[in-house]
């Protein structure tokens, strides 16, 4: 449970007006959608595990946001949150995911064969390729709300499943609280280790409670397939390697995910998934595929072009610095990835990245040669 | 809701009446723990053993006193407002502590926390307050500033004097647990009362949400403005939720009496002045506190207080008087003497840097204040600081003259 008075019945002694948060300085999806009326309607509801409206919105109340960057401002504490509080979540989802309606259906496609090309992004420009997503284990509360016992159970199930992986997926689990200094340093050098969250967006939702209890990192011996346990979601699954062979990265991603899902099913557990929202995760921004497929790519000339932002928008791509979200690009190297998560399948999103990055690299080459790129401008996807 | 706002039997007014009537019998009755009805039991998905926190790397009072048996007994209990053991200890689980500095590691969410979770809080209080046992000891309250003697320091050494404490409004949850409506109610009650202060105490309230840039800058320049807490000790306890809603600062026109609203406690009350007139600082402190108390009582409210624990505040370390009386004092020679720490210890004083807790001393200037909070009255603690600082200044003067100094014998603790 996040903090504060989660005993919702006690709050009913006060009126909705008295409890309604002051969102006058706020710029996030939750604040755009929430009204006093909606708050009154939903405030006496609880999910079966006891997650309440105030629990959902606390992070958005505590973090007013930024004039330029629109954060989500709400989280789920369990699978049922998206149903019990749909009157809030549906408009937030619609706004965040480009008009995705409550009646829309989401396609899941983890068949890497359906990807076209993607094995030959120019390694002179594309330094590394990576695909990540998240998975939640049905029947357990999500990180903002889970108890220590629940979190430990999730860890235990995950370790058992991951330990059964074989071949090039065979690997080892490193619990955060048992790690030796040596192991820790190696994981940092490999760029695998995740830290206790410091972002107030995450802390305010209660995800960092009891750190580092039941948190850990699993990776295969080849260091190309990595799973984070109990960070922002139950599981974050990452496939990555140096160079531009996105196809190989995605193939391993799909194979690994499917195997892990089977292993969980054999033990009587499944992932949270439904036809409308796809894979269910803590943050509404990660619904659907939860997938971010990206590359680190050198675009020193293109990034200075006045139409760079527009080009990315048309390709449905987004840029980040090489440290990930909210970091700066160093040496003209950008992290370029899909902007969408919901309403497109995994294959469709990776295809957009592959095709988009190919175009960006060709544009970069043109600009290097002193020519312009007007005839290469893409249509809005 | 009425029951939460009504007076509970342990208020001081009733204590006074019963003592008159029943003498020692009444005293015995009052020492027995109030019977607080706990709220509905918490539904748990996992047994206590599965949820027991891993405290092997921890060094705080909560971790030293929590056991699986205590956890199992208390983990499904709630206070009438719904505060739970897990919430109370979360800050101590999230912050393992430091090998040298032992933090408390737990907070109260409301007045009833100290009863419902007494099996853990009593030993924590005993450890933190040097053996004060809430089960069989009484805390004296004394805000009669006329009793202070020798309370004006040599201003060649003492640069400023300050006394602070906290007060909680009975019937409303504390910062870790309060709802937005409750927090706004605290602000309303306090600001309403403060508007009634007159004379040298008359002043003005600055709400954090409505402050202008100019007002903000002035408050920073006056060293009055408090920021959103960044210390994980506080944020993990949930006190910073909904910031800056219903938070603010009140101060008198003379800038010598200051109240923080809804920071770590409902209110923090501060009296301060440049120079060494600690007696006057304490006089204003007592007068201001009594006035504020009278004003809220007129409106049907009172402070959280009982005979076992004195004034009830969020952190168990601030129970009793919640009082820290201190000076900024120049002790360049004494602070380099190897006996400095021992002298402070024996005088029941502590040193901090001039930026407050966890800062360094600059230019030989130290913040010297009382170590104790519970088990001695306000007058006793301020006198301790007065006597102690006078002694330190004497030592500094002797060292200046090339004379030797003596380590004083240790003061007794509970008088």
Q: What do these coordinates show?
A:
The complex is a heterodimer of chains A (381) and B (415). Chain A folds into two domains: 5-97, Orthogonal Bundle (Transferase Creatine Kinase, Chain A, domain 1); 112-376, 2-Layer Sandwich (Creatine Kinase, Chain A, domain 2), CATH 3.30.590.10. Chain A has 13 helices and ten strands. Chain A has helices at 8-11, 16-19, 29-33, 36-42, 53-62, 81-84, 86-96, 148-163, 181-189, 200-203, 246-266, 308-315, 346-368; strands at 126-135, 171-175, 216-220, 225-229, 235-242, 273-274, 278-279, 292-298, 317-320, 333-338. In chain A, strand 6 (273-274) and strand 7 (278-279) form a beta hairpin. Chain A starts with 7 loop residues before the first helix and ends in a 13-residue tail after the last helix. With 415 residues, chain B is of the alpha+beta class. An eight-stranded antiparallel beta sheet of chain B has the order 2-3-4-5-1-8-10-9, covered by helices on one side. In chain B, helix 9 crosses helix 12 (278-298). The longest helix of chain B has 23 residues, at 378-400. Chains A and B meet through helix 1, helix 5 and helix 8 of A and helix 6 and helix 9 of B.
For CATH, the homologous superfamily of the largest domain in chain B is named as Glutamine synthetase/guanido kinase, catalytic domain
Biggest sheet layout of chain A: 8 strands, antiparallel
The value of Rg of chain B in angstroms is 22 Å
Distance between the termini of chain B: 40 Å
Tally the helices of chain A: 13
Identify the quaternary structure here. Answer: heterodimer
Judged by helices, strands and strand pairing, the structural class of chain A is alpha+beta
Search tags:
heterodimer; A: 381 residues; alpha+beta; Transferase Creatine Kinase, Chain A, domain 1; Creatine Kinase, Chain A, domain 2; 2 domains; two-stranded antiparallel sheet; 33% helix; B: 415 residues; disordered N terminus
